[in-house]
Amino acid sequence: MNYKMIVLDLDDTLLRDDQTISAKTKEALFSAQDMGVKVVLASGRPTFGMNDLAKELLLNEYGSYILSFNGAKIIDCHSGNEIFSSTLSPDTVHSLFEISNREKVLIHTYIGNEIITSTANPFTNIESDLTGMEIKLVDNFIDAVQEPVVKCLMLAASEKLAIVERKLQKELAGELSVMRSKPFFLEFTNAGVTKATSLNLLIQKLGIKTDEVIAIGDSYNDLAMIEFAGLGVAMGNAPADIKAKANFITDSNMNDGVAKVVEQFVLNNKVLV
User: What stretches in the chain show pLDDT beneath 70?
Assistant: First the structure.
């Protein structure tokens, strides 16, 4: 199989624990792009928190794309143009805020290049560290959100958030997509918006077939694209239930798992048996 696109999650997939891309992984991805293969970054992160990594991999020069906010935006790295966008209405965000209070969890969203929250907390601090976005503490969350936003996150310790996730997936079915990107991040986008749905839009635009796509990830917000792609790959550090749905399991993010997939299936054109 001649793969034409490699779609990569960022945290705990492309990135090592120190938030860097290994030299071996960079070399493999540059070699793939030199062969004409599109390298696409697909993350729950806001676009702002992905731009530097896209530039590091020269996606603008190779004419590739970013799927940010769990697929709620698609950005053309060469032109900088937004080719798809899905947003939540202020009323929806206000409703989510009330639900977060009911469930006794925290919440934040994004306006411009800032993270908006009404309560200082360690989980929003993690998001700020990952994305480089400033945190804006507001006195009244509802008053602060008076324009559409791309997504919201509810925040809590993993055990608590797992319970809230199951409850809200049932309660909000058909209204919103509800999935965890990290054990302590529960993400909300419009119903039907996932990394897979945006990836499908992108490959149709580019004339690439599903079978010609490799998608690599480690978490629950990656599952849809792992199942969608011709070759769905779970990282060695992924949970067991993600690995069970993948076509192939690679090494961990700390042991060049992405590079090993690219070398095996793209550069050496080996076939999955």
Answer: 273
